[in-house]
């Protein structure tokens, strides 16, 4: 149930029944030949499909995240840590004011992991809410399914290549990309990292057959749904 | 042309041809019986439809804005001024890094007007970009068209009621809402403001016939398109 | 009644009787041949004259505001948005601690309008105070009086030219200045804006006869006085 | 020469001749029976009188400073350290942009001393300006003159009691106030500090004869004038 | 080579030869019966022992980190994310000013991982330095050695129990602690987390024999030394 | 009693008995031929030796402070004011959460004095704690003892030269350094200040005989111990 399909009276009724909600977060950044919005599209979609049968509201996706290492690639947008933290603080304060006290952040981008630390900080500050960060693509079952399909599932390779993240005008290259020197990339400035990394894929096949891709997706949706279901602590309504 | 339909190579080619881009910004807040996301939906949509024939890229909409006065209505999310400013600073820094130096912010929410002041500040700081804030709903031609249709076009009334912002399960009330005491509302705390304001419509008809509504929309799209076209100053590529 | 004419015991007695106070805010920025402090002088003076017969205390004027677009003119001082917001937050917190819970901000400078948004934010945060922003020069009656005197009343023209904002050594030019291209100015960097704008007057006569000017001033004082009087909500003493 | 008596062309000419300027800073806080604005009045006045014969411009006084320990006294306004620092950063950046690179901050309030540390930080950051903090009342000659008149010259006693800081309706008590337990006050919360401190005078006579007071003032003006004169380092125009 | 054993002339000579340096970071937080400073002690010590034969300078350890989830345990100190980020920004700016442009942060506490994201951000901002985060206890070889000794090596259990982190007056309990419900702990407020977690050990033996512990330590020192050695990118001296 | 020698149960018992604690703070900066860490070493050591017989816990020293004026000397680390303030805010909030409400900050560096202003601000904000700043080297008795030994006791001269701050490889120069022009240094940029100041000693003998030095140290320890003892206000446990 998307917040965009609700008005304020709907939310008032909903939160009286169930205090859970979902907040997806992505990143606009290079994904080789794929859409710059892969992480926005996938985090929003996995949250929506997971939440739907549960009737838990999903807030609009935060499209921008932290990705300084890709700033040499045109189109990429990166936030400073303090900015993303401020944004999350204010949104979570608003969700809590509405009465949502069990909040699942569905994250689609590895660079956003500091959001998990913020969640712990806010739980300590407020003392009456629970916030959990769900990195949908590397939750245990989804990561296992990825490895089952191909040993290398990583940034901008087949693992993020779904019918809805591909661009018709930019088909995936054939074959597999050799693994770049990731240790060198991590220690390099963005311009140098781009020189090493080339198109942006972190190695492995650019695409696998759709049957496998959709199987991975289904696992991701189911595991995200389980995360929405719990575990949640008992909390008093504030 | 949505950024979500582009990869980084597309943007690299585009910015070499044309340094304009569009950034829509909305708000998640009460809109009476309409979607909580009216301002998100409309700012994204008007930007997309306006930009399409021009081939100017549209970045993902920032869904959250400043709306402290509606915080007594469930579902509403508000950002502190400093947070929205930080978010805009970082996004604009990223757009500039990519090479976009003529940026139109298409705003769908009156409470976000401080973004205009920030644009002026960034233009002074950088000295090599132009940023303009376009409040699509109250730009001169669109505001005139609104007055032509009905003397009262305001928050959550017919002026924001389009086929894509209505909820099937929550039809508009019949008739016209008497104008609430806006001076009292502005001086009141959110809880008191809600008591005065009731469902959230600022007065006037909840809905007009679709022909009139779509005529208003068409004016808004055209005026936004003209704003994308200019005026823009001559700027050296940084 | 100026705070500078009171000691702490005076304020203690005053706030027990009446919880209203006034905070003027200006800007140090180019005003063509007029004083750099036009907005400081006028906001302080209009607040003082308006408050005097009501016995409502007026705090010292904040002389610095947001004016990034004039930074190419020597002498101009501009604050970042976050700075002005922090300043207002702290001052208002102090006024509230003293017991003032109905605060009228008398603003003399268009660039400071984000202060209004902050007022709304603080009213939502505290829940026990009322803050209103009064832009004295464009309140309805004062703006109507301006149009009555001359169709163009704007920055640094006759509308801000009073006996107390003129400099003896720098008389106003004769005649009327043609309106500059304001759309181009708004989209330009400060250096380019100065090239277009020249002396800094936004167009129209530099000066009118004193009788008209003082009539405008009288309207401004009376409308500001009415704003101090209300409307104010009922508020419990915190 | 007050900035309020100058327009932007005046400043442009002045800074071409001489890159010094003066920025006074005060505090609105309890001063026993004296005006709440003692530190605003004195810092502005001493700066003005000192600068006048030198023709060095004096910017409008910043009326608000850091005084958390007096917050239990009505009328007092205090800024957080970060706020005052942000304000000073932005103002100094603006002065530097205009071309002023030798800036004397004339301070009238002990609680503002962190401004001196900020000056050092900005000098290190910019590398092309000089900023000096002048605490006018405890500069060596003025402090010596104070001791010469009476061994105890301190907050809100005779040392701050001038014809222009007195209130006609609130004459000074006769005699001398016994010194309160300052160590206890410094370790106490504001409420407790007020209980110990009573009217707010830190001890000693509330007033001395005007001849002595004006002699002290004259010393303060002269020593402030000497501080405006130098020493200043050689600096390249930026 | 500790910075405390160097003066500024020593550093000037050193940085002319080798631009690497090491910055350890810890946390003051509950570690069951062990010292509250386990993460401070170990990160400083592993950095020192690793750097010594290489002659690379080690800066004083930052003793405080992010640990909001342990705030119900007395003695624990936690920083907000923004605070730790500000601290790291300023220290790294200072190291870079001195000429150190290859900086290894040796981290002893899992909660500090946002420091890695900051390093990436600073590398993008500066474009002329390399910053790497080394979590000494879970680097690949050290983590493998841990698993070799006992399948559960975790917070406050044997893995952090060394002769220099034990307290003579508080011997380790005998035996193994059953694994607590970590999913429940992560979703809980600090008070509730303490109730579940008890003494603070995350499960497994409180202590193993010293031979095994010191073997783990030796692996940690060697792997940290290897991290100081590289890989580092080629960087121009700024 | 060092916090590093305590576990959380120890602190829980301690704070039930006595709510005092000590927080030392230093600076990493040039000290001529002495260790870059003089202020870290001394503030930690004086706090430890002073607290030991009282059984009051001493938290780990904050090694980094504010020293922008020495940034032209290699190895120096300086924090912005806002950073040090944020750090102190968070640490003090944590100490207060544990139950420590009488906090002595033992400072070893003159540039950190803004910490005293912050303490006053936090006391006003919380209303239930007492924070005192103790500048150990210029407390009255210690400063008097310094003057007794030699009229000039200042930065990096004999006054900071103890067996534990000397470096074996860098003996002190013989004789006395002529006093540099401190007024010129304070008004200068860091690079220029280094040119004037040379090795970094602010004048006077680089070293005196150990008997005198240790006598000074003993006075500093005793005066710091007295400061830990009080005066402290009566405070309710929060």
Automatic annotation (TrEMBL), chains A, B, C, D, E, F:
The keyword Hydrolase applies. Gene3D superfamilies: Creatininase. InterPro entries: Creatininase-like_sf (IPR024087), Creatininase/forma_Hydrolase (IPR003785). One of its GO terms (biological process) is riboflavin biosynthetic process. GO terms for molecular function: hydrolase activity, acting on carbon-nitrogen (but not peptide) bonds, in linear amides; metal ion binding. Keywords: Hydrolase, Metal-binding, Zinc. It holds the Pfam family Creatininase. Its cofactor is Zn(2+). The keyword Hydrolase applies. Belongs to the creatininase superfamily. This is Creatininase family protein. The lineage of its organism: Bacteria, Pseudomonadati, Pseudomonadota, Alphaproteobacteria, Rhodospirillales.
């Amino acid at each position: 149930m998307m917040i965009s399909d609700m008005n304020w009276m709907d939310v008032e009724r909903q939160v009286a029944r169930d205090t859970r909600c979902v907040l997806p977060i992505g990143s606009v950044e290079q994904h080789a030949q794929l859409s710059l919005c892969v992480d926005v599209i996938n985090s929003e979609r996995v949250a929506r499909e997971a939440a739907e049968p549960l009737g838990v509201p999903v807030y609009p996706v935060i499209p921008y995240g932290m990705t300084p290492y890709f700033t040499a690639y045109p189109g990429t947008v990166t936030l400073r840590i303090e900015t993303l933290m401020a944004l999350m603080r204010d949104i979570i304060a608003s969700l809590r004011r509405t009465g949502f006290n069990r909040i699942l952040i569905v994250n689609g981008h590895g660079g956003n992991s500091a959001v998990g630390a913020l969640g712990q900080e806010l739980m300590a500050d407020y003392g009456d809410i629970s916030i959990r960060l769900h990195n949908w693509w590397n939750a245990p079952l989804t990561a296992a399914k990825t490895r089952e399909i191909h040993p290398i599932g990583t940034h901008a390779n087949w693992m993020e290549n779904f019918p809805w993240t591909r661009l018709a005008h930019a088909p995936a290259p054939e074959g597999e990309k050799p693994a770049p020197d990731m240790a060198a990339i991590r220690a390099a400035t963005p311009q140098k990292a781009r020189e090493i990394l080339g198109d942006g894929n972190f190695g492995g096949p650019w695409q696998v057959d759709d049957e496998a891709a959709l199987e991975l997706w289904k696992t991701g949706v189911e595991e995200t749904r389980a995360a929405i279901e719990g575990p949640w602590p008992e909390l008093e309504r504030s």
